[in-house]
Design brief:
By secondary structure, this protein is of the alpha+beta class. The chain is built from four helices and three strands; from the N terminus they run αααβββα. The longest helix is centred in the last third of the chain and has 84 residues.
């Protein structure tokens, strides 16, 4: 380590004097990610905004974006590394994802409720149409019966009148 700024000293809970000219401490939560990081850095010569979890002071896990580049410093290859703490953003993204999933469940439940309501309305509509058909059939039947009863009543009253007249004529 050649240099770290005050923010890095505070973030990692170390001071420059205690680690200057020593090998950089291992802050990686997942050592396999560190190996991939170093491999990519060797292949490409730089890394830009690679997401990783590292330990900050007091072993607190933080999510960071790491950018790193190999630079030539007085004939020697050195690493220049920048850590950008995105822990709060990741926390917000996870909360947002949780709320999004919760909202999707609510929407699915409401959609199911609406579909059930639509089915019940269709059944009710079908029953109402059937009731209206039966009511119309009843009215039609009553009308036909009325139309048939009128001539029958006329004929019946004519027969009664004719019987009376026939009895008078026979007597």
């Amino acid at each position: 380590v050649l240099f770290i700024n005050q923010h890095a000293e505070s973030f990692f809970g170390i001071d420059l004097k205690s680690i200057q000219s020593k090998r950089a401490p291992d802050f990686w939560v997942n050592p396999e990610i560190r190996v991939l990081f170093i491999s990519e850095l060797i292949q490409k010569g730089k890394i830009q905004n690679k997401e990783a979890e590292i330990y900050s002071k007091n072993k607190k896990v933080r999510t960071v974006l790491i950018s790193s580049i190999c630079i030539d410093c007085q004939g020697q290859k050195e690493l220049f590394r920048i850590y950008n703490d995105i822990s709060e953003r990741k926390k917000s993204e996870l909360e947002l994802e949780h709320h999004r999933n919760k909202l999707e469940v609510i929407v699915q439940e409401r959609t199911l409720d609406l579909m059930n309501t639509i089915e019940r309305l269709k059944e009710t509509q079908s029953q109402l149409i059937q009731s209206e058909k039966l009511a119309s059939l009843g009215i039609l039947t009553a009308g036909i019966a009325h139309e048939i009863n009128n001539p029958i009543n006329y004929i019946n009253s004519s027969i009664v009148s004719l019987e009376s007249l026939a009895k008078e004529l026979i007597d």
